[in-house]
Amino acid sequence: MTLVVADTTPLRYLVQIGYEYLLPRLFTKIWIPGAVVGELRQERTPGAVRTWAEQLPSWIEVREIAGSASEHELAGLDRGEWEAIQLAKEIHADLLLIDERSGVRVARGQGFRVTGTLGILVEAARLDLISISEALGRLAKTNFRRTPDLFAQTQDLVRKSGKEGASE
What is the pLDDT along the chain (168 residues), one digit of tens a residue? Predict the structure, then answer.
């Protein structure tokens, strides 16, 4: 079994666009630290995400991480990112799901394989689980940060793999 740890944003966006069901199909189980649960339940988080986080599915395992706030602040990370990386270290994770550039940089610097929301959607489309166009259309309706060409490049990744995704 692949050991996978998730930060907040991939979970948040997949829940927002109704594609969280992909995670157990791609990875079986996801570990998350307590800070990520807290971030998913914050008042400013979209209601659908808060509701989902109040009753986490059985394929999510929550683990608490000890450590001082100054450690993650010095690395330029928020608490959820820092705890996700720490949890990945503790369980010797094979993959870390994280979107924020600073978190990705730190995780890769520590030797972790990393993917984010778009990487999950690309893999699901390659497996014909979703339509990448539909998924990106849903994601475009959120506040997901992207450059003008990012979604086009994402669709190209799926096309280059010889797949277009389900129902395209």
Answer: 789 999 999 999 999 999 999 999 999 999 999 999 999 999 999 999 999 999 999 999 999 987 655 555 556 788 899 999 999 999 999 999 999 988 999 899 989 999 999 999 999 999 999 999 999 999 999 999 888 799 999 999 898 877 655 544
Strands 30-33 and 114-115: unpaired
- Asked whether the beta carbons of 71 and 83 are under 8 A apart, the reply is no
Is the entire prediction scored with pTM above 0.85?
Answer: yes
Task: At 70, list the tokens.
Answer: 């100054």
